[in-house]
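Quick one: structure tokens for this chain, please?
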Amino acid sequence: MTETGNPSQPANVHEYSGSHIQVLEGHEAIRKRPGMYIGSTGERGLHQMVYEVVSCAVDEHLAGHADVIDVTLTADGGVRVADNGRGLPVDVQGPGGKSGVERRLTEFFFGSKPHTGYRVSGGLGGVGLYVVNALSSRLMVEVHRDGHRWTQEYEEGDPVTALTRNEETGEHGTAIAFLPDASIFEATHHSFATLSERLQELAFLNPGLTISLTDERPERPVRHRHTDGLRAYVAHLNPYPPSLVHSPAIAFESENQDATICVQVAMQWNTWSTGAFHSFANSTRSHEGGAHELGFRTALTDIVNRYARQQGHLSASDEDITTTAVHTGLTAVVSVKIAHPVYEGSTRTKLANPEANAYVQETVREHLTDWLDHHPSEATAIIHHILDTAT
């Protein structure tokens, strides 16, 4: 990152030279412009710090090495995130003589590397731990790996102790405890409700993963685990059974041949709401939508119209049902896990991968068509609901 002079002073082209360019390296750049990495220095950014550390633990789960994540809001205002994955590498790597732990916490690491076992990576895609460390006044990392417990401490992104090998242990996993820097954040009080909602969301998106949240300010623990995945998520979003057009929710998933993209979908119509659509890319909410949302909406509208005409609910002279009518009263969750996500903008809330559009369309067309053919009474109820909405 570079900065050029004082904007309050008038520019003098004759005095402008290379000496006026200030170069910020490493965590200095992150501390100078935190919003570029976590969105803001308000509550949103404060919680994003937690999500980035949790995301690294979720990556371990997706790679098949962790099934429990424990998040604790500590009494001193900090956060501790622990998982039972493989543990960050403790061996020395590269010419700088840094351990794998220190490199993850002090260097930019973009994308998934094959030897890590990560096919997909959420959050900031490897930069998350570095950013959290840089924006914390204190950080302690504890690793259970290679038969020992290892610890190291940091202040404002810099190591203040060496990676230390402690007592022997048969456990495995990583625990990171950090205290957000009060000189950077506008407030440092974490919302239990906000974090609980997001952690429950992650449990829905990753069946078989248990995520707990404990508040030591006073203690108020919750535990999230949902083996039924997105179907359970839709049931959570549709809390009024009498209003359901059909039950249970429609749910399906598919993975492409080279395992670079996995699509999960759950959907259910109701009569009480205007509709709710939630999309995710690598377990991160796509607030601005993107390719996967477009693929879902396109395929769904086409399938509903084709089925309605095949079954005689629409005549040849009738106009097609609109996308708006199809989505009225629909609660749907679409989640893609993709090896090489491409986002529009730095907020990572709009997915741009064209292959996500194509594969979501393919998956929805195949599985939803099959479901409608095998559930004619529920399919008829859905079409009648949509046609009533349209009129």
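The two ends are 56 Å apart (CA to CA).
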